[in-house]
Amino acid sequence: MTNVLNLRQPGQTPDHGMDRNPGMEFTPELFNGLRINRSAVERRAATIAKRRSVKKDHQTAWLLKVITCMDLTTLAGDDTPGKVKRLCRKALQPVRKDILEGLGVADMDIHTGAVCVYHNLIETAVKELEGSGISVAAVSTGFPAGQISLPLKLSQVRASVEAGATEIDIVISRAKVLTGDWKGLYDEVKAYREACGDAHIKTILATGELATLTNVARASWVCMMAGADFIKTSTGKESVNATLPFSLVMVRAIREYHRLTGYKVGYKPAGGISKAKDAIAYLVLIKEELGNDWLNPQLFRFGASSLLGDVERQLEHRLTGSYSAQYRHPMG
User: Fold this and answer.
1) How many domains in the chain?
2) pTM of this structure
3) DSSP 3-state assignment of 183?
4) 26, part of any domain
5) What is the per-residue pLDDT for 7?
6) What is the CATH classification number for the domain harbouring 296?
7) Does the annotation count 57 as an active-site position?
């Protein structure tokens, strides 16, 4: 099972040693001609969950892979330092020890890829996760709507990096997409990338608010051109968040960008993914469209707040043959 999982070794820090996407000159010719056929995308997306049957040990391995690719997230108005501390402990020990021992994987150092919080709780998370190899991600730039001035957005990014965040999830200005101001979007994201410095930047497209799949594809290209390390579907606050059709369009843009430049950009679906079977469908999508290189936390993440509970529940079912109550798998 170790070969299937390809997990980090205990104490190993995230592999940010791979060549980062440096971005490229703004080249509208690469995306202006894109026209996405929604019907074709939806037909292809509808087949993804049906194409592979993942059972027994393979299912266990894929569920553990889901955990290692998870940004365990709390972005609520009632967040407190105590809540974030509990979440960090859950990130460090995401599955009950007795379940891991029963599955024979207790020595694999299973933990989530990152913990994602608001800016004012970064230092709490950094302190709790020190030395663990788990990244601290922070949402920024006026998350979730992004309706503040660019200077304020940039100051938020710099402050989050200074506080210790190693990953910054920024929101793009949806108005620039909806009005076709692609150069303005490019300049904005490039400025965020520069403000991030060594911290990795995940650009949230808010796909459910971009009106068309063609806009999703074009926005993906512009963000990658501007130097995004990841492109991400949603804030989790929109009425429509991550879907397989949105994801298919975005990962194919990543594939073509890699083919053109040689640089690998990561992908993060977020919002609305709460069931283990749905998470596995996303892993299947990544495997089929981008290949095994992307099946690791350096290039793929789930933005999740409730997904972990169902994954842990499924792992216990794999061990015992029966489903337990949700309260047996608290988030923290």
Assistant:
1) 1
2) 0.92
3) helix
4) no
5) 39
6) 3.20.20.70
7) no
